[in-house]
Amino acid sequence: MLPFFINFSAQTTANQLQSMIMGKLDKRRKGVFGPPMGKKSVIFVDDVNMPALEKYGAQPPIELIRQYFDHEMWYDLKDTTKMNLQDLIIVGAMGPPGGGRNPVSSRFIRHFLITSMLDFDDDTLTRIFTNIISHYFKTESFPPEFHLVGNQIVQATLTVYKAAIDNLLPTPAKSHYVFNLRDFSRVILGVLLIKPSSVENKRTMIKLWTHEVYRVFNDRLTDDADREWLFKQSKEIVNNCFKDKFDDVFENLKGGGGSKSYPMI
């Protein structure tokens, strides 16, 4: 098996898709293309339903894949000669329609064996990541009072993660605004890189958590309005989840003249 990964976006075109796939195939004989003889190529397509709709409501990259399923051939982009394709296995993944994702046609879906997975509920996420943090704190011999901070870190991360999913929606111009459990995990694992010798007090952990949230979420944002939204969310979460005042935690970052404005964290 020869794996090949493709990520669709709103800007993906049928010609781009065909060029990417044909670039990975060998010419077996005249008019016949495929992976090296005796092998099969597994093509994984992520975000299948992200391509933008054309004038008549179709998604050209998806229609190109459907053409392969139906006829096992494409046409050469230069001279329109017929190209037969062999030994390709196509696997896809997509999220529910909405926020830049589009419904896909039943003519396309009928070619797949469909498996769906529900999101974890809040209690499950809390249990998973609380156990991860608790194990790390015990292994690294953190003081007992930091175990409560670990629970607060999980709740704070869960709050910002869910808020980002609800408010920072993907659009054709922001197709990368897609947040999943990898982002939740990156925040937690980033916090767990710290050693007990580097922790002065609880506020050190709050600062570290805020830094990780900005590293994972803020670095993906493309306009000032979204960055301002995340700053306000972070400030509110520090106040509510960590039971501390954001302005006091980041006293050293305040702007001059006593104003409560901060440079980029």
Task: Describe the protein's architecture and organization.
With 265 residues, this protein is α/β, with parallel strands linked by helices. Helix content is 43%, strand content 12%. It contains nine helices and seven strands. It has a four-stranded mixed β-sheet. A three-stranded parallel β-sheet has the order 1-4-7, with helices on one face. A hairpin with a 2-residue loop joins strand 2 and strand 3. The longest helix has 22 residues.
Short description:
It is built from 9 helices and 7 strands, in the order E-H-E-E-E-H-E-E-E-H-H-H-H-H-H-H. The protein is an alpha/beta fold and 265 residues long.
Q: Could you say which overall geometry the principal axes of the C-alpha atoms support?
A: elongated
Query: How big is the Rg?
Result: 24 Å
What structural class do helix, strand and pairing data support? alpha/beta
Summed up, the helix count is 9
What letter string, H or E per element, gives the SSE order? EHEEEHEEEHHHHHHH
Give the terminus-to-terminus CA distance. Answer: 46 Å
Largest sheet: 4 strands, mixed
> What topology, given as strand order, has the largest sheet?
2-3-6-5
User: Would you identify the regions where 5 or more consecutive residues have pLDDT less than 50?
Assistant: none
Give the DSSP E fraction (strand runs of 2 or more residues).
5-15%
Q: Tell me the helix content.
A: 40-55%
Total E-strand runs: 7
Mean pLDDT: 90
